[in-house]
Specification:
185 residues; mainly alpha; 9 helices
């Protein structure tokens, strides 16, 4: 996901960064890279602290609501990071992040929801944000996928238990209930 995110930042950074006279040309690449990293870490932070349904709700939407608290949080994190790590003026960092974030996330959403584009889907995004690709998590996810159907965890009736089902469960009361069902509590 970070690769796709970086590509989108490059694409939408042309106007907001490269053509921005307030950002020195020698910092353009660093600003774009830091923007990608900061967006990704912001999404990871939100995924670890909040209900996954917040991120899934954004990813499943058709348009980005600039007033959404998650969008505000990501924008603030990116602008703070640009100011702290690269010394970009605070006003410039804020206007740059405000100009890019909705476009980047809107394009990410479009890619994730496009049935013709197999490069990215919502499950992959959520998995990368929650560390689902790590070896430790792979064993847990494999066990949940294998045995979860028997415990009624397949929330969307697609024949497998995955992050889409976890998102549905968070809407219905949380992952604690899902794991409780799985482990008989």
């Amino acid at each position: 996901m970070l690769t796709q995110l970086s590509q989108l930042v490059q694409e939408f950074g042309a106007d907001a960064v490269v053509k921005n006279e307030a950002i020195p040309n020698e910092q353009n690449e660093a600003v774009l890279k830091e923007t990608s990293n900061s967006i990704f870490s912001s999404l990871q932070k939100i995924a670890s602290q909040a209900d996954l349904s917040q991120i899934a709700g954004i990813l499943q939407g058709k348009d980005i609501d600039k007033n959404n608290p998650v969008i505000h949080e990501i924008t603030n994190q990116v602008s703070s990071s640009l100011t702290e790590k690269l010394g970009i003026n605070s006003a410039t960092a804020t206007s740059t992040a405000t100009a890019m974030i909705p476009k980047i996330l809107g394009s990410l959403i479009a890619k994730a929801n496009d049935p013709k584009d197999n490069s990215l889907n919502i499950s992959d995004i959520l998995s990368s944000l929650t560390g689902g690709d790590s070896p430790e998590n792979a064993g847990i996810m494999e066990a949940i996928s294998t045995y979860g159907i028997h415990f009624g965890l397949d929330q969307n009736a697609d024949g497998k238990v995955d992050l889409d089902d976890a998102v549905e469960l968070t809407k219905k009361g949380g992952l604690g209930g899902m794991l409780g069902k799985l482990f008989g509590k």
